[in-house]
Specification:
Elements: H1 3-10, H2 13-19, E1 29-30, E2 42-44, E3 48-50, E4 56-57, H3 59-67, H4 71-81, H5 98-135, H6 147-167, H7 171-180, H8 182-207
Antiparallel strand pairs: 1-2, 2-3, 3-4
This protein binds zinc ion (ZN).
């Protein structure tokens, strides 16, 4: 049997998940590594299947995603960590800790990216609010407030608070904060997109 066949025949996805520090509950479910998953929706047994995003595959696909490498390198890593011989070659030295460490690093990297993405979305919105707060500030006391000025007054403190929270925390904590405020952050991101689209359209009108 070649490397791929041997690894698949020797290690289940569940064993790999557990070895690489992914929490698997009693029903054999873990948080999906293919999408941002807060509650376990990925079934891991011989293979894996995520009921939320539909990701599906074998232990080598799983390790490849986990480590952020190609399938060949993933298979080699599994062979090393589970002491598996293939192609008539004896397994190498004692399995190392590198697999688990790599997996953790790769997960942290992904979480960090996720944290940054959400942070940037909020930052973009916050900059707009700040701008509106001065640009549309009423000039007379009895003047009716511009809707964008109102939006700025209503939302800046809250957005600033979320930014502060996200800035000073670990990627794991950020995941919690983002999950708790998902809709709100989503609305901010949408608002920025909307405004950019309107501005582009306005610029286009002027060009014509
Ligand atoms: Zn998934």
């Amino acid at each position: 049997m070649n490397l791929f066949e041997t690894v698949k025949a020797s290690v289940t996805t569940r064993q790999a998940a557990e070895r690489y520090g992914i929490e698997v509950d009693r029903t054999g479910k873990a948080c999906c590594i293919f999408h941002d998953d807060r509650h376990p929706s990925m079934k891991v047994d011989d293979r894996f299947h995520c009921f939320a995003c539909g990701a599906d595959g074998d232990v080598i696909d799983f390790a490849a995603q986990l480590f952020g490498v190609g399938v060949k390198e993933a298979a080699r890593q599994l062979a090393a960590d589970f002491n598996i011989s293939y192609d008539g070659k004896r397994a190498g030295r004692e399995p190392s800790r590198t697999g688990a460490v790599k997996a953790r690093k790769s997960l942290m990297r992904r979480l960090k990216n996720y944290q940054n993405e959400n942070y940037r979305a909020l930052c973009g919105y916050f900059r707009l609010l700040r701008q509106w707060e001065t640009e549309y500030a009423p000039k007379q006391p009895d003047e009716e407030w511009h809707p964008l000025y109102m939006e700025a007054i209503q939302n800046s403190a809250r957005v600033e608070y979320l930014l502060d929270e996200l800035q000073g925390c670990s990627p794991d904590e950020a995941r919690e904060i983002i999950a708790q405020n998902k809709n709100e952050i989503g609305r901010c991101a949408n608002r920025v997109r909307e405004i950019r689209r309107d501005r582009k359209r306005a610029a286009h009108e002027i060009d014509r």
